Structures are given as C-alpha cells and as structure tokens.
Amino acid sequence: MTPASARRLDAVVRHVMREADVPGVKRRSVGAGRSDRVRSFGVANKATGRQMSPGLYPRIGSETKAFTMTAVPQLAGQDTVGLVDPVGRHLDGVPDGDRITVRDLTGMRSGRSTTPRDDGFFEAPTSDPQRAFSPAAVDRPLHRQA
Fold it and tell me: Start and end of every Beta-lactamase-related domain (predicted)?
C-alpha cells in the first residue's frame, strides 16, 4: 500500500466512524512482500476514554460470519470451493468434517453444538488473545490441550 493509499484509507475510516457513530476502529493492511501496517482510531472504551491502540486485540465475535458468507459464494463461483463439499476436504481436524458441507456452514446449521462443553473455553480467548485454537478445540476441554 502506498503512503497516498494509506492516507485515503485512513480518511475513509474516519469518515465512516463519524457517519456510523463508531467509537473505535483498528485496521490492518498487508502489502505483497511488505510488513503489516496496523492503525487504530478513536476509543476502545467510551466510558473510560481508553484509546484504541495497534496492540489491542478486540473481540470481533460474529463479525467474521458476514465476511465468510460473502467470500464463500465468490469462491464457489470460481470453482475453488463447492457448496456440497464436505468441510473436511478443505480443513483438517474438523469434527464430523466428512458429513458437514460448506452449504451447512453458510446456513449456520452444521449440526455441532453451539455451546462448548468446557467453561474454560470462554476464558481462554480473553486471557491470551494470540492463542491459536484448533477446529477440535471446542470438542474437548481446553485445560487438557497440549
């Protein structure tokens, strides 16, 4: 990303923040062969006034569903992913990945439980925001993971 492009993107972020009344944003841009550039704008906590910072790891929750459900039909249109493909064809280690299809996931009806069986699951992401979780992590207690 050129410096001019970065300035334009920053201006768009600030404009959208004002228009949508968004208190804080963190954005990341990656260029081919270049390092990441992380920028932050506004506040992370309106009550305390705590500023957003590039090192902050905000919880994005279900936001990724919208991005994923936008990308999947595009990938299907390019014959990169088939909607009837079992997810196990594209991602190793998914419990029941041989019977859950990509289409099932786009409809958020994989047949898997939506509630992990381990209370530690809810604490783990917030205690270590950079921790990597395997697809099977929700199928076993996290305190037993190596």
Answer: 9-125
Find all residues with CB under 8 Å of 38, minimum gap 6, and list them. Answer: 26, 27, 28, 54
At 74, list the tokens.
């595009």
Give the length of the chain: 146
Residue type, 23: P
Give start and end residues of each alpha helix (H) in 1-115.
3-20, 63-77, 102-106
Chunk the chain into consecutive blocks of 10 residues (it has 146) and report each block's average pLDDT, rounded to whole numbers.
Answer: 83 93 86 73 93 80 76 88 91 86 79 58 71 63 39
Helix (H, G, I), strand (E, B) or coil at 63: helix
Q: How far is CA 92 from the centre of its chain?
A: 19
